[in-house]
Amino acid sequence: MLSHFFPFVEVCSTNDSAKLMLQCINEGAADYILKPLRKDVLKTMFLNLHRYQVDGCDTHAVSDSSSGSQTVHDPMNDNLDMSPDLLWNGLQQHRLREIFIKDSRFTHMFMTYYTPRSVHLAVSKIASGREEILKAMLSSGDFSPFELDVNDLIECVCLIFEQVLALPELSSYKITKENLYELILDIYKSYHDTNPYHNFSHAVDVLQTTYYYLCQIGVLEPLYPSASRARSRPACVSQLPVRDIIRPCDIFALLMASIGHDVGHPGVNNMFLINIGTPLALLYNDRSVLESFHTMAFFHILKKHGVDQILGGPRSTAYTDFRKCIVNVILATDMGLHNDYVAKFRDQADRLKQDGPIDLSDEKACDQERMLLFSAIIKCADIGNVSRPFKHGLRWAEVLVDEFSSQGDLERELGLPVMPINDRGKLSQEEVQIGFIKHVALPLFEVVNSIIPGFSFTVDSIKENLQQWEQRKSQPVMENARTSMQTIHTSMVDEAKSCHAQAAEVINSMESRRSSSAAIAMTSQYGIQSFHIQDDPVLKPKSSARSLTDMFSKHKREVDWQTTESPSPLCACCL
């Protein structure tokens, strides 16, 4: 964008295209002027530049008539200065005020740079019949965002949060339907829809998966009344009492983290950002770079819509707990720390077995177990497509491979090392999924299953999908084996034909040499007269050659010995 490189730009051109003019303004130009320039236009050009400076993000000094001093004013933060709970409202003359304002501008700059430019989206109202269909989809493990358009996806998010905000315990959260809709729309705009995988559809999928898990373990009731829960083994004493330690405010925070966990994702992973030394990697010291950025960007959006004030202000207990939950949950999605988190979950499972049920009166212990539980749920939901019905998991695998391969192409172009998983064509889709399920997904879901009651259905689904991936991987081998059998089969037929020809030639030779009755008698005695090619179409193969035929055509018989198209490879006699 022009404004990223030049503070003020005025475009001067002979092109009078309205589309070009708007494009230049949208890209950051202060004005668009047509050539040839007139003198009266030249005299007023500076006014637009001045207005652009005043309305832009430059800090300028404003005189204080009472004291004669100057205070720093930033128009971009006017809406923040009106909030009574902001710390720096009482710091008009303090040096920290300018630091806080610069920090706000810094955050805004990163949001502007890494998140998509806001676009107008015409969203139509969902019909009541369609709403019921969406509720049924959200209450099912068969949910797939690929079948939905943007309107449906946004409506799905609103339906889930409307249900949660309707809980009696959250009656103090005064979020109207219009405010909720505007918030979700802003979240949608913050995702890059050009990403094959990490886009708004993925965010909605993770949100629905989290919601579905909460319904299955009995924390929430499904939106669709007739939705059934998966059969799972009953809870035992060595598992968490999820209904006792998960509060409604925690549900709200966990679902918010689910929809915002990948805000602004650029479509490449942490290692890529670190290897090329991006500002984000430098800012977050190469540690959970994207996850830290997602958290910061998401809270920027929440703050813009006043969620912090709705929860009682930044210093309230409700907002502090809300922020703590979201920060911990989003940071847990860093796949670079996957094994560390799985180890934490194993420790939690062992602790529950040894110490028994947790003391619900111990708030610190409950909070510790709750944070680990939410980290486990979001991690399972983030890769939850492996527990979906296979047809959906296959679709997600395809777009994920597409995004990985795109990063690999970029790495190769930049001369960076390319991981095998990113190297286009290096590994098959089946190999990637089998390795991921065996070494990443299944160990996670199995240990979480030992902690959360009613979670075993996920492990069963993953194992079924693993079998399907292994079958798909073996299919090429079967195809090669079938080709080999066909080749061997053809070779046997050719050899049989050759034997037939040789036998016929021998018989003809023998018959031509018959000169005496003794010879004929001898021939009759040893059955040579019956040594001839059989053309009877009903004759079936005999002897050991039949078993070979069955063996090589076990999967599919390519040659039917009962037809006249191919002669029987056997003679009437058995030698």
Automatic annotation (TrEMBL):
InterPro entries: CheY-like_superfamily, HD/PDEase_dom, PDEase_catalytic_dom, PDEase_catalytic_dom_sf, PDEase_CS, Sig_transdc_resp-reg_receiver. Its cofactor is a divalent metal cation. GO terms for biological process: phosphorelay signal transduction system. Its EC number is 3.1.4.-. Gene3D superfamilies: 3'5'-cyclic nucleotide phosphodiesterase, catalytic domain (1.10.1300.10). It comes from the Eukaryota. This is Phosphodiesterase. Binds 2 divalent metal cations per subunit. Site 1 may preferentially bind zinc ions, while site 2 has a preference for magnesium and/or manganese ions. Keywords: Hydrolase, Metal-binding. GO terms for molecular function: 3',5'-cyclic-nucleotide phosphodiesterase activity; metal ion binding. Residues 115-476 form the PDEase domain. Belongs to the cyclic nucleotide phosphodiesterase family. Residues 1-50 form the Response regulatory domain. It comes from Umbelopsis vinacea. CDD domains: HDc. It is an enzyme of class 3 (hydrolase).
